[in-house]
Amino acid sequence: MKKKIFMYKTKHAETRQQQRGIKNETVDLLLQYGKKTYKNNGTAVLCFPRKVREKLEQEYKGIKNLKSAYALITTNENRIITVGHRYKKSLTH
């Protein structure tokens, strides 16, 4: 098991997490196992690669929607900007 990573959540991230019904456990798993896709504006998107997601879905049966979960983080300030569920195929464009 990977070491737990801690990041501060912005108020916006806390609000969106609550509105979108995303559990803290899902955010923790994103921080530990999520693949980072860096953007040009000092942020990165975390989402689960398919093989990792399949393994986590077997291990954590109570967590739903791992497939579509993502977190937008800053790359230099150690903060979670927002969290949500993807509805489009890619967040990198």
3D structure, described in words:
This protein is of the alpha+beta class and 93 residues long. It has a domain at 23-85. It is built from 3 helices and 5 strands; from the N terminus they run βααββαββ.
Strand content: 25-35%
Per DSSP, the total helix count is: 3
User: What order do the helices and strands follow?
Assistant: EHHEEHEE
Cα-based radius of gyration, to the nearest Å: 12 Å
Which sheet architecture does the biggest sheet show?
A: 5 strands, mixed
Low-confidence stretches: none
Shape: globular
Instruction: Estimate the helix proportion, in percent.
Output: 25-40%
How confident is the prediction overall: mean pLDDT? 88
Strand segment tally? 5
Rounded to the nearest angstrom, the distance between the terminal CA atoms is: 31 Å
Strand order of the largest sheet: 1-5-4-3-2
Structural class: alpha+beta
Question: What labels describe this entry?
Answer:
93 residues; alpha+beta; 5-stranded mixed beta sheet; 5 strands; 32% helix; 26% strand
Brief synopsis:
This protein is of the alpha+beta class and 93 residues long.
Task: Walk me through the topology.
Blueprint: E1 8-9, H1 11-20, H2 24-33, E2 35-38, E3 43-47, H3 50-59, E4 69-74, E5 79-85
Parallel strand pairs: 1-5
Antiparallel strand pairs: 2-3, 3-4, 4-5
